[in-house]
From TrEMBL:
Domain of life (superkingdom): Bacteria
InterPro entries linked to this entry: FAD-bd_oxidored_4_C, FAD-bd_PCMH, FAD-bd_PCMH-like_sf, FAD-bd_PCMH_sub1, FAD-bd_PCMH_sub2, FAD-linked_Oxase-like_C, FAD-oxidored/transferase_4, Oxid_FAD_bind_N
Family per record: Belongs to the FAD-binding oxidoreductase/transferase type 4 family.
Protein's UniProt name: Putative FAD-dependent oxidoreductase
Molecular function terms, GO-annotated: catalytic activity; FAD binding
FAD-binding PCMH-type domain span: 45-226
BP-aspect Gene Ontology terms: respiratory electron transport chain
Cofactor(s) needed by this chain: FAD
Keywords linked to the UniProt accession: FAD, Flavoprotein
Organism: Advenella mimigardefordensis (strain DSM 17166 / LMG 22922 / DPN7)
């Protein structure tokens, strides 16, 4: 028997075993049908899988992993396929199985007294938000892709979003998880407890592991009281350091009511106005930087006055140049559409070298000045599209290349500009991945910026849980 015949027979045997577990509706083998699972939404990463498996429950997921483990078949776990770092895309070998979790989309329980919701990993983030609201509760994780991303993907990447400033990222919004290990064992860690000091925190080990240690199949998530009042403002300022001072003022005067503080440079806003329809510029003149600020509370009384007085003080001391507080839902939605339209505008405007970085808030202004100058020396025809969740130190410091830039030039520039930006981030004790994950995009760079001890600890954990290296190979580490 030739090696080709052996490979075909092995694949046939694998499909037969998996069909017995998940049935015909749970296995996709056709080349055209598989394609949607083999390419990411950015059209940046693509590969070829041997097949796509879609289990309907935890037990089926466990059986699938047991079979793949026994056959040494590599597995790429995939949720909504909305990632930014290529972490859910198979390689070109054709040997990897894509494990799609989208059939596991049941909301198992809402416990209003305990303020928790238990969901399977394939539930869309937007559906969790809607179910929470139906129960007069609030699930604060909010992303631009919330209508298509799954909570499993959010957990795998420890997603952030626009409400981290008040509520924390996905890890902080999670009480317990259920995980299928690489060998098919099930760890039921679905504990709805806020205090549990009975050993190592296994939950946090799997959250943010990008599918390299196991398959998260369900989670117990924290709910919060549903805010009934919001006050939202759009601000123009002369520089980022002025916004840093404004963040401090908002925290001091508004406390936990401050739930979002988003920053956008003039270049970012102008890009949206050029490429996104149905948006209007909120102010009467241009400003070097802008902020979108939102307060939320249970009582509208005094909320707008609190925000207004904070902004008036900032105007008086020169930290901001102009501001407008939304007077209607439509005006608030326009503010947010500008902010959320930046990613879409970048795709339409050209080729972007993306940087998802985290810095101490006190270091942001100096970093932006140094990085902008350094990139200008390296690539004079590039545009800096700098925006992000400045309230929690997360910037999307992106470099927009001219639309006519060819692939070879783009590849060369990406490597050199990444090093410029990330070296400066590292010098400021920051992180080269804040909320998008490492995936395959930042894997090799991680080795440059992590210490030998840290990398060794990560590899020890990986080897212990996944000795055959079948979980999402080529990603993260």
């Amino acid at each position: 028997m030739s090696m080709l015949d052996f490979g075909i027979q092995s694949k046939s045997n694998l499909i037969a075993q998996l069909l017995q577990v998940v049935g015909t509706e749970g296995v996709i083998t056709g080349e055209s049908d598989k394609r949607a699972y083999e390419i990411d939404w950015l059209n940046k990463w693509s590969g070829h899988s041997s097949l796509v498996v879609r289990p309907a429950n935890t037990q089926q997921t466990a059986e699938v992993m047991r079979i793949c483990h026994a056959n040494r078949t590599p597995v790429v776990v995939q949720g909504g396929n909305t990632g930014m770092s290529g972490g859910a895309t198979p390689d070109d070998s054709g040997a990897q199985v894509v494990l799609s979790m989208t059939r596991m989309n049941t909301i198992r329980e809402v416990d209003s007294f305990n303020n928790t919701i238990t969901v399977e990993s394939g539930v869309l983030l937007a559906h969790i938000q809607e179910e929470a609201e139906r129960n007069n509760r609030f699930f604060p994780l909010s992303l631009g892709s919330e209508g298509s991303c799954t909570i499993g993907g959010n957990l795998a990447t420890n997603a952030g979003g626009v409400a981290v400033l008040r509520y924390g990222n996905t890890r902080e919004l999670t009480l317990g998880i259920e995980v299928v290990l690489p060998d098919g064992r099930i760890w039921n860690g679905l504990r709805a407890l806020r205090k549990d000091n009975t050993g190592y925190d296994l939950r946090d080990l799997f959250i943010g592991s990008e599918g390299t240690l196991g398959v998260i199949t369900a989670a117990v998530l924290k709910l919060h009281p549903l805010p009934t009042a919001r006050s939202t403002a759009w601000v123009g300022a002369k520089d980022i350091q002025s916004l840093v001072r404004l963040i401090d003022a908002c925290r001091s005067r508004c406390g936990e009511r401050l739930c979002a503080f988003e920053m956008m440079t003039h270049e970012s806003v102008a890009l949206v106005l050029q490429h996104v329809t149905d948006v209007s510029y909120p102010l009467t003149s241009d400003h070097p930087v802008h902020a979108l600020i939102e307060l939320a509370d249970m009582n509208q009384e005094g909320l707008a006055n609190m925000l207004e007085s904070t902004l008036e003080e900032a105007l008086d001391n020169g930290d901001i140049s102009d501001a407008v507080i939304s007077a209607s839902l439509r005006q608030r939605q326009n503010f947010w559409k500008i902010r959320e339209g930046i990613s879409q505008a970048q795709v339409r405007a050209g080729k972007t070298i993306k940087h998802d970085i985290a810095l101490p808030i006190s270091a942001i202004s100096d970093f932006v000045s140094a990085a902008t100058a350094a990139i200008g020396k390296e690539q004079s025809n590039a545009r800096i599209i700098n925006f992000g969740h400045i309230g929690d130190g997360n910037l999307h410091f992106n470099v927009l290349m001219p639309a006519e830039t060819d692939y070879a030039t783009m590849t060369r520039n990406t490597a050199s500009l990444n090093r410029v930006v990330h070296d400066l981030v590292h010098q400021a004790n920051g992180s080269i991945s804040a909320e998008h994950g490492v995936g395959q995009l930042r894997r090799d760079e991680l080795r440059h910026y992590k210490s030998a001890v840290e990398l060794d600890l990560m590899m020890c954990i990986k080897q212990s849980l996944d000795p055959h290296q079948i979980m999402n190979p080529g990603k993260l580490i």
